[in-house]
Amino acid sequence: MFKTPLRRFLRNSEGSYSVETILLLPMLAWGVLAFFSYFDGLRLANVNIKAAHTIGDVLSRETDPVNASFIDGTDRLLTFLINRPYQISLRVSVFKYNADETDFDLVWSQSRGSHAALSDADAATVTPRLPITANGDSIIVVETWMDYRPPFVMGLSETTFYNFVVTSPRYSPQLKWDDGSGSIT
Predict the structure, then answer these.
(1) Backbone torsions φ then ψ of 107, nearest 5 degrees
(2) What's the pLDDT tens digit per position in 129-141?
(3) Would you say 175 and 140 are in contact if contact means Cβ atoms under 8 Å apart?
(4) How far apart are CA 151 and CA 38, in angstroms?
(5) What are the DSSP calls for 48-114, one per residue?
(6) Cβ-based neighbour number of residue 76 at 10 Å
(7) Closest-CA residue to 54 (of 176, 161, 142)
(8) 27 to each of 22, 32, 130, how far by Cα in Å?
(9) C-alpha Rg value of the chain to the nearest Å
């Protein structure tokens, strides 16, 4: 009784394009928005790591002691390179390797944004990630954070992009800090 009308309905192809469009258009729109969100997240993660490397390179070429206004300038450079209205933080630290103790000593640390500068106690959390260098050599550590919100919530949640870049000074043995009081570290 129901088999004949059901067979007729299944064989009928009138209006099939409209039905397929109505069924597939939402899935297609979801796919496009999801790909856009994933691409935007990957692109901004890439921009963040490039910006951190750029700041590390700028600092590695510096031969004069840097001061608070120089670090403010690197923070503005980071904001310019990322070019997004997200919350951004920057921390620059200089470590010196002590071969006798087979450990790094924190020389100085400065930060801008919501993350604090490293203290001697906090430096112990960073030093296991540092590469071994020659005795007395110093390295510059640039850390950046960016709180990322995806443009569309399609499987992505809010996350923080964190970058940790280690650079050796190029033209001087150590990047020095001028605190403005005449004391240079």
Answers:
(1) -90, -55
(2) 999 888 889 999 9
(3) yes
(4) 9
(5) HHHHHHHHHHHHHT--SPB-HHHHHHHHHHHHHHH-S-S-EEEEEEEEEEETTTTEEEEEEEEEESS
(6) 12
(7) 142
(8) 10, 9, 46
(9) 27
Q: How confident is the model at residue 15 (pLDDT cuts 50, 70, 90)?
A: low
Question: Closest Cα to residue 142, out of 109, 179, 178?
Answer: 109
Which DSSP state fits 129?
Answer: G
User: Two tokens at 107?
Assistant: 């020389």
Residue 132, phi-psi category: left (phi > 0), alpha (psi -120 to 50), beta (remainder): beta
Contact 162, 143 (CB under 8 A): yes
Q: Count how many residues are written for the chain.
A: 185
Task: For the chain, give the percent of residues with pLDDT over 90.
Answer: 48
Neighbour-count burial for 37-74, b at 16+ CB within 10 Å, e otherwise: beebbeebbebbbebbebbbebbbebeebbbeebbeeb
The pLDDT of residue 1 is 59
Per-residue pLDDT averaged across 99-122, rounded? 90
How far is the C-alpha of 30 from the C-alpha of 11, rounded, in Å?
A: 30
